[in-house]
Amino acid sequence: MVQTANSIRLIAPHGGTLVNRLLEGELRDVMRERARSLTRVPLSPLNTADIECIATGVYSPLTGFMGQADYQRVVHDMHLDNGLPWTVPVTLAVHDDLAERIAIGETVTLAEPDPDAPDGERLLGVLTVSEKFRYDKQVEAQKVYGTTDDAHPGVARLYRQGDVCLAGDIWIFDRPKEVISTFGDIRLTPAETRRLFVERGWRRVVAFQTRNPIHRAHEYIQKTALEIVDGLMLHPLVGETKSDDIPAEVRIASYQAILATYYPLDRVLLNVFPAAMRYAGPREAIFHAIARKNYGCSHFIVGRDHAGVGNYYGSYDAHYIFDEFDPQALGITPLFFEHAFYCRRCEAVVTAKTCPHGRDSWVFLSGTQVREMLARGEMLPPEFTRPEVSRVLMEGMKRVNGR
Q: Is residue 351 pLDDT above 80, yes or no?
C-alpha cells in the first residue's frame, strides 16, 4: 500500500491536543500595548525557555505555569493532577516582595532581560495569576534531582530562585529574542515538524537529544535507530546549559559540518530544542521524551546517564525509570542504548555488549578531556569524531575564548 500525506497518522500530542499560546494579528498588537502598563515579572533564562516551550506546544498539555495541585503531584508522583505522566515542575518562582504586590486574578507582564532595550527589558507576553503558593525547595531538590547538594547545577538554580510560585495561563505576543535571532531556519515548532513529517511520509520518527557536539558514538546510535523508523529528528538542546558546556552555536555547527556528507538528508531533520537543561537525570529523560512526542516523534533515544551530571545518577537510571510508567499513558517508545565507542581491534564503533576486546582497545574521551584538547588547539582523535567536526569545534572554541 502506498502511503499518501492523507494516510499518515502521527502520534497524538501528550494529552491529545497540541497547545498554541501565541497571539497573532490585532489581538497580539492590543495585548502588547496593554502589557506596557502592567506589573512586570522578570524572567530567568530557564523561565524564558519554558514560556517558549509552553506557547508553541512543546510542553503540551501545559497552557501556563503549574498550580499547586499539579506541582505537588509532579514532585511526589511524577504525574499531573489529571493523571498524565509528567516528571519535572514547570513553575515561575518570584521573590516575596514581588509576590506581595501581585493579586490573584491580576494579569502581569513577562519580561526577559535585554541590554539593547531602552529600559533593559523585552516584553514577551502576559500571565493571568490564578494562584500563588509557597513550596519546599529541599523537598523538590530531593525528589526531582535526587539530591539536596547545591553543587548540582539544577539544585543550585532551584535554591537561587524565589520562594513563591505564580501559577496561571500565559499568552505570548513576542517570542524570546534568541528565538528570532539564532537558528531561525532550524527552529521548528511542534506544529511545523508535524506538518513536515506528514509531507515527507514519515509515520515513525525517532528523536535524538543531546547537549554535546556530535561524535562517532552519536552517529552510530542515530543510524542504528534510523534502521527501524522512517525518519530521524536530530534535536540538540540550545537553551541554558552549564557555563563549561560547549556553546550551542558551536554544537550546531558540528552537526551541519557532516550532515550533507554522511547522512541521508531525505531521512534526517536537524531541528533545535529550545528548552534549558535541568540536569535532572532520569526524570528529565521522561520529560524529554514527552516533549518529543509533542513534536510528532514516535520513538526517543535514551542513552546511558541521559541528562546526567557528575556522579548523581546511576548509569542506567534513565532507562529503568521508564518501567515506572504505563507505556500507553506515556505514548512514546524509548530506545535504550549503551555507551558506544571506537574499538581499534574491531575497527568499528561498538558497545560493551558487542565488543569482545578490553578497554585498552577502546577510544573514548570525557567531556573534560574534549574541552581541554580543544582549548589547546588539538584535533580530536579521528576514532572519536570526524575531522570535519574537530575543525569546527577548534575554530568555534577559539572564537568563544577570544583567540
A: yes
